[in-house]
Every structure is written in C-alpha cells, then in structure tokens.
C-alpha cells in the first residue's frame, strides 16, 4: 500500500468530487508537481475505476505529461485508450495572435462545449467521477487575447459542471505574472471559487540545496459529521526524479 504523503493528508479526501482546487505558484517555485500528483491520484485509485480526467493543456503537449506520469507509475497513453483520460491540446488548437475563426470569445465557448460533450457522452457511473484539469489559466488568458472576463466566464461555466454532474475542477495559475497589478479580479475570483487553495512558494530564508520550496494548503469547508471546518497546513518539499518528498520544517532526512 502506498504511504500517504503530507500533501494527501492535507487534502484529506479519497476523491475530490464536487470540489474546486486552485494551485498558485511563481517563477521561482513551480507547482506543476502538485498537478502531476493530483492527475496520478485521480487515475490510480483501484476502488474507483470509473474515475475520468478531462485535461485542458495550454502549457505543454501530451508527450510532456505522459513522460512525467510514466516516471510516477501512471501510463497516460493506456488511460487515454481506455477512455479514462481525455486530453485537449490547446497548443495545437489555438493560434495566439492570429485569426482562429472562433469569433471574439477566443474559442473558450467552443472549448467548454467540447468539455460538456465529452462528459455528457460518458456512462452514468462515470459522470460524477470526472476531474477537469486546466494547465494553466494564465496562458488561457493569453489565448483569450488578455480578456479576463472571457476567462472568468469560462471558469464559471466549468464550475456549473460541479452542480450538474458532481465533477471536480483543478486549476493551475502563475500568480506572480500579476505582481505589478496588485490583486487582479481573476485571482480574487478563482480564490473565491476554490475549496482547496495550494500555494507553492520559495523559502522565506532563501535557496537551499535540500529544500526546493514550501507548500501551504488551505482546505476549506471540510465536512466533519454535521460540522464544517477549515484546515491549514504548511510544509516543505523536495522534487526528486521519480517522486516528491514532503516534510515539516527541520525534519528532512
């Protein structure tokens, strides 16, 4: 049995059905490894073979994720062939700066229609086991020619999938690209939607060879019987070739 990491303990759930997870990172400290962890987690739960991931990639091609997930013990090509992994390659489908013939919405309305069609075509037992992942929102805004309202509309459309099907939504965003703008509406709205906010940040003490950064996980609205509570966790991490080590400050081996 695979040992639960500090990240899994902070997330606290076997499956993220009906929840929104927002990953925020910066140039110095990428949160891509958390996205990979959640992707593997969604596809590697033997008790729920009906789990499905719809992956919207603005950042990398399929080969990138397939290579990384193979190192983590998850074969995306097999999952795709088994209709458990649906990959939307937005690097190929969008032509930044050009006229893509998709009207003034940057193609996002059409993209949502494709996501909805994919989920609607699934067997009934799969529809409430779907995770929609977006990598990443800042590049989606580029595809929308900088129109924040179009991106917000798209994210709100995706949020309706939670109430309609019980899906979960995972979004990665690079927070520091807005550093000269204060706290823009896009970040504030995404943080408002999020049930779980995961921030990857550099160490306050600067660079260290054995620690690559720190994660802060704010897990909101945890159901504990009849009560709802919040949980806040903070720990360090070190990204290795085929895994990630999580540990509390001062406890690294």
Characteristic terms for this protein:
single chain, 9 strands, alpha/beta, nine-stranded mixed beta sheet, 253 residues, globular
Low-confidence parts lasting 5 or more residues at pLDDT below 50?
none
Q: Which structural category do the helix and sheet elements fall into?
A: alpha/beta
Side-by-side strand order of the widest sheet: 3-2-4-5-1-6-7-8-9
Number of helices: 10
Structural overview:
This protein is an alpha/beta fold and 253 residues long. 35% of the residues lie in helices and 26% in strands. The protein has ten helices and nine strands. Helix 6 (108-120) packs parallel to helix 9 and helix 9 (148-165) packs parallel to helix 10. A hairpin with a 2-residue loop joins strand 7 (213-224) and strand 8. The mean pLDDT is 86. It is globular and about 50 Å long. It has a nine-stranded mixed sheet, with helices on both faces. The two termini are 22 Å apart.
Short description:
The protein is of the alpha/beta class. It has helices spanning 6-11, 32-43, 62-71, 76-81, 90-93, 108-120, 124-127, 137-143, 148-165, 185-193, and strands at residues 20-25, 52-57, 85-89, 130-135, 168-174, 196-201, 213-224, 227-239, 244-247.
Q: What is the secondary structure topology, with strand pairs?
A:
Blueprint: H1 6-11, E1 20-25, H2 32-43, E2 52-57, H3 62-71, H4 76-81, E3 85-89, H5 90-93, H6 108-120, H7 124-127, E4 130-135, H8 137-143, H9 148-165, E5 168-174, H10 185-193, E6 196-201, E7 213-224, E8 227-239, E9 244-247
Parallel strand pairs: 1-5, 1-6, 2-3, 2-4, 4-5
Antiparallel strand pairs: 6-7, 7-8, 8-9
Helix pairs in contact: 6-9, 9-10
